[in-house]
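Batch job 17 of 40 flagged for manual review because the log was empty.
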Amino acid sequence: MTFGTTLRRERTLKRMPQDELADLSGVSQPTISSWESDTTQPNVGEVKRLAKALSISAATLLDENSAMNVKQTKNEQAIVNQYNYDSERKVWEALDKSRQETIAAQQDVIEALKLALGLQSTI
């Protein structure tokens, strides 16, 4: 059973029209319609408000048979983005450090060769 089917079932069991559920949950009637038709999906906060408006638990709306993928809130997405940014930044910093160490080691080898060959150091 999809999220939309579950939402529609719970709403009709309460004999609640879409516009009433929309008012109680703080969204528009077309939004309720798009959720019930599985065209779009609510975020976590919206699921909580729907559950409260229907006097059911969020778990009922998100039962184990639901095919819903709850959207991340902007705050949750920001946390994920920051984690990804921090991880990527650490990788680039490690690569840069490795590159710098490689360059330093190459310069040491060049200097050692110059000394061995009796050439003047330019570095």
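Reviewer: the log was empty due to a logging misconfiguration, but the result itself is present. The two ends are 71 Å apart (CA to CA). Unflagging and moving on to job 18.
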